[in-house]
## 1
Amino acid sequence: MSHDYCKALKVGAHVLRPWMLAWRADFGLPGSAEPDQIELLAELILSEGFRTDSDLPGVEKLAICPPERAFLEEPYKEYPQLMPGNLIPPFSVAYVKGWRRSLSALIVCAGIHELHIDFDELTPQFKASMRSIHSTVGKFSSVRDQVFAHRGITMASTATRSPNAFNFLRQIEVLERAGDRESFQDWENASAVARAFSIGKAESAAISNLQTKVPPAVVSRLKSVIRPRGMRAFLAHDVLAKDVFNAAFSSGVGAYESWQLYVSNKEAMLLIDRMCRDWDKLPPTMRKAWVLKDVLNLHTCCGAFLTLIDQLQSRIPEKDYQAALPSIQEQFLLGYLDPEILHVVETTVPPANLTQVSFLRSVVEEHDNRSQRELAEKEEVLAQKVRQATFEQLQAKLSQDMATLKQRAPTKESQAVETALDVRYVKDKLQLVLPRFAQFTSQLSKGDGKVFCGNLPLILAMCDCTVWPANSLYLNGALSVLTTTLGMSNFAVGHLQLPMPQTQTTQSALLKHRRLLEDNLAGGDIDVTTGLTLHFNKPNHQHDKRRLSQQCLALTSQTLKDNVWAQDSEVLQSGIINNLPLIKVTDMQGFDVDAGKLKGVACHEEILKAYLKGMTLKGSDVVVVFDVMPNRHAEFARAVAGRILEDSLPAVKYFGVLRPEQSDVPQLVHQKVFAHWDTSKSSPPKQRPREERDDPHLSVLAWQSGAVVWPESLASKFSPDTPEHQELNKIRAELEALWPAATAPAATTTPQAVRAGGTCDFSIDGGAQPVDAAREVDMQFVSELDFKETTTLGAATLCLVFPVKLRLCQLKASDPHTGWACAPVQKAGWV
């Protein structure tokens, strides 16, 4: 024991006290031993003995150098034998394994020696452990030789058994601080390190990266996390060798190439924290060192996570970001977000859509919803201000327009005058149409019998049996008249439309009806052998069940030869009339198909034209159409009226035998004549010409046809639930009270004719209701002298002749509104 102790503490036979030994703490930083730590180590050594690391067996070496005077409480005597050239320079000793334990061992040995304790009294464990404590002091020519000499067994065992890159890095840092650039150059590349320490390629590359390429802050952080965990248990050297912690490293390769700029080593500190978290949370038996593949995936996750966090920070306010960040970071450090982050990196390109990332979606959507609500509130406030300003401006313009209109608003007196003038104008206008009716009547028929004197006219006798009449006497009488007419002249021809079968008509009934017609006509010497077929052009409609053809007979007298119709008319030669237009079912009067099987005026006009086609006629020739048995609405009469109004040649006259239920037929003809005249150039305006007045200057309201119009566009200015809309309705109600017709006209491309009209006075006078019979109304009277219009024509008598109940009647103009009144004619020249 004494021998070992003296050997350890003597240099040239001179003893050095343990407290005179300077030492380095924290891998080469100068310092001194703390008394409490020395005391604790001494107690442990006495009870447990000296021990070395279980994974690094070997002796502990202690490098001794003379202490600095600053560390000594009292000056020490200098010995000539302690020459500076024979000792290691102060604070230039590289890291030596187990310094504190070795120093504590020397203190224990010094105490045993000074207390004269017998070595045999110590425990066997203590005796065995004391043998590994010794110190050597030598003289070296260079720091490199000194480092390699004091590396001794411990560093050799480290290099050969389980290399630790950070231990070798410490040796390199010592040489760098020593200033020996010539010796330090051997440590600047991995091959030199590998040769120096006899270690592998991965370990040497790791040392080279830590020394030259890894940022100092990252190296310091790696040291702090590896020291308590152990290099072999925490991190493989290939991670350091493959540049994972280098400043310019990026894991964005292959499928992650689009993220290359975002998964760089800006997240090295976060990566180290995640590695520590994931390693520490595992049970000790399940822990294993990080390998390159796992670190690369974790490196990509960290880079993408920081990128997404940066996007989130730029997307939402800083206050919201700081509130959400701790929760998101904690989830990431626990490893909950790794699968989704890797999925985002694999399937998207930066910048990523944050709404597609589940752990950020709620934060972003909450911010977006709040932003939308705030924006909606701001827009609502702004819209309200704009709405109020718009309404104030509109209200001011409407008030100005109302003030202008009140000066032109009609009063009861003025309305009464205008109404009276309108009625007078309508009456005078109806007087103007009477000559037109007289002219039309003279063209339609003449009551003096001249038509039948001199040159006989062409007679086209019509008999429509499309719908079989229920009255057989009426049918027999009509056939008798038809037979008599055809026997009057060879200029006469008959057109008989045979019955058309209906759903309830049987074939035997149809044949019976046709046989009855032919027998009656044949009995009057009428030729019934000439058949005629009508072909219709029916509108394509699913509800139209009418047939496309109808059988007819062209009738002539057998007693009179050389009938002009049979010789010249193309219809009688061909026996067919094609392309006859049928009226639409929806255009029929009352939509009553079964009432008369109507074909329309256009169809009967074409039948009339077909009979006249091929006839050699002069301008003075006259064709008389005698409708013996017209259909319900006497469409041949309306067709002839159309030709007369159009002044078509040859001149056509019409006579018809009307039944009592056909009393509306004359009115239809009259309406056709009046409509033709009313739209002609010779007709006066449909509205009474009024005195021209300058249109008022209005800002918002419109002025049209002498009345104010409320623009319908104002209704869309404000929503119906806004106060402004209600105020506009009040202004409109006030305007309509002032001008009852203050509404927008119907949109049309052609100007609509405005008829003269009046309004009833339903106002309440003195609280009395309008229906009160005892009510006294203060009527507005207008003097006759106030009227400037004069009557242009007097009443006229019309000579239009229509037979009624198989008798002729003369129509007179008695009522200017309805137009007609019937009176029987005493005689007629042709009956």
## 2
Amino acid sequence: MLEFYANQGIVLETTCPHTPQQNGVVERKHRHLLETARALRFEANLPIKFWGECILTATYLINRLPSEVIGNKTPFEILYNQKPNYDFLKVFGCLVYYRNTDTKGDKFEVRGRPGVFVGYPRGTKGYKIYDAKHGKIVVSRDVKFIEKIFPFASVKENNEEEIFKFPKNLEDFDEPSNQNSSPMEETNEPTQEKSPTAQEEGNEDERSPSQSPPSSNQNVSNEDVDGPDNEEQSQQFEQNGTNENFEDMGIDNMVGLESAGAGSNNAESSAPTRESRNKSQPKHLMDFIVQLPRSVDHARPTTNNESSTVHPLANFISYEKFSNSHKAYMMAIDSNHEPKYFAQAVKNEHWRQAMKDEIQALEENGTWSLEELPKGKRTIDSKWVYKIKYKPNGEIERYKARLVAKGYTQMEGIDYHETFAPVAKLVTVRTLLAIATKRSWLIHQLDVNNAFLHGDLDEEIYMKVPEGFSKEDDTRVCKLKKSLYGLKQASRNWYKKFTLALIEIGFKQTQMDHSLFIYKDGDVCVTALIYVDDVIIAGNNIEKIQKTKNYLHAKFSIKDLGVLKYFLGIEVTRTRKGLVLTQRKYILDILDDCGLQGCRPSNFPMEQGLKLDKDNGEPKIDESQYRRLIGRLLYLQATQPDVAYAVNILSHFVSDPRQVHMDTATRVLRYLKATPGQGILLPYDGGTNLRSKKQSVVSRSSAEAEYRAMATTVSEILWMRWLLNELDVKQNGPTPLFCDNQAARHIANNPVFHERTKHVEMDCYFVRERVESQEIQPMNIHTKLQIADLFTKALGAQQFRSLLDKLGVLNLHAPT
């Protein structure tokens, strides 16, 4: 820490021993925390072992309450420059029912389990629930709150033993004699001001040193409170914090238990037997860590950077190697979140204004006209999509609300005809960036304002009035005159218009990738790569680049985002060695949605020698959850080829996933937890075209299988040679094709092994033709040095790391 202070220009001053008066500001804040925590505990009548959760919740609430010291603003608003959201705040210590996900396919299993609300978790969008029956703290999104009932309030206050000795089950509690005795229900509701999803403040888990630790028999150990199960981690946060699937069970059945007297006697008599058992944590919970209330061990020195999470993300990701401006940009895209629903956005002033601006822009553009719906015609619906746009320095440029038509309700032949429109291949993106970096070109990024609205619409389409702008007495609908985001034909219409605009100023469309345009005039070379409404412009002449920007702005209205930093969810960082492509934020978002930010990391994405079957007798799991996870991991291969094989194998089971498949996918996430900042270095010998594909035919020998793979690779090599030729990168000789199978190389070089290969398709023999034409040169490589093995098998530790280094994979965010 001393080195950190010195680097940051911080002077560290310490107080004398036993002189708290020298640190009055901190001591006063400790008092504030303890007073709030005591109020929470006494109101809910929680046992003292939950003092840690009371402190955390008090900190969470104080950071979101106005203070006169800072001009009646909240600490949250000062830190994040936005008002906190109060919609999801609930009464601490009240009775809740959270969704039971451990049904194991039993449709008659209870849908909700009772528990006690004990706070707000860090890094997860949900609520912390203490399940007394199962003796664990879980995190769940789908929770129904009974804010007038406090399960611990039934314990008699004059019986100190009952107050500090928490029963094993909720059955040991009496029903509250007066359910309306809580003064909480008389308090006013907080102001309903809505902002983007609230962020967690740092250091909220710090305990006050003046808090006396509870006795040893009052601590909550890992044996008494298990970590939350993976199925109970929230993936999506709804502001009302409830789940409509929960049935209304009635207050009389919420406790649903036997009389208190019998329950207390049973618990008291069975306590010695239960305490004498050898307790161990369930194996399925070994990967999950929960924040537990614990006492401070005064026998050992404490540090300020201690965390209640055993494996915090700070141990695996660092920002020390980046410039201050780049740090600001990364922190900005991390700290701001966009709402997902209209009901969330409409409560925030920024998003309300953004929706008004979008409607105004659409009307000024003549996108529609309000008309009565003709007989025999049908309408399509629309929805709002929200996005925060950033400046190059990380500051928020504007809040963008985009109106998107629900094109999936269109009917082919009536509402649309042709739909195809090319987008930039990731191979082309990596290749262009590698060439631009090698040649020290300028690389800039543009964003076209309302790109799809520039396309002309030929079909007759009617759309309902957008949500939030309809009137009850107005039955008119929107007759679309121009393309709108979400329509089947919108991307095609926009692409045609953008192509014509670039051709008018001398750009030529490449044949290898129709989304890539090149301008050449002597030594001047400028390229434009389009992916829907995002454009990358790279070239060696700043004047031509600026002229192209000005022309596109006059034609379509664009935003100049400056130097390329963030494209399609890929973070681009320029170093002395070249460009590094990472998906750090994308990985952190996946871990956050899956509730695995505190999981134990793994050194490898898949265990070597692991065999997965489709039907192994294990129970089925939620298919939609598994498919969504695999789909997100598939896109991650754009910058992290080290997970390609594992994701490829897991994608075989999306139609019928089992628990073992989800466990294996969880291991991939645990590996990503250890390497969130890992990416590909460009330029490098390789790393631009990365892919593997399962062969659709059965090969009779390994030589035949390798030869078929060579044929597929030759196709990619030829395409790459032609693309590089269009980018004015000349090929002076044949492209080496490394193969570790001697027989396959012989077949490619000579017409040998006729008896063993006469059944192979004729198109495979074009490999030999390309070898004879000096375009391809098969070369030998040792099996342990074959980089392609990363995509075809699970490797051991040494070979795995060695091949990643050869491929150009590095981790800029690795802690030093």
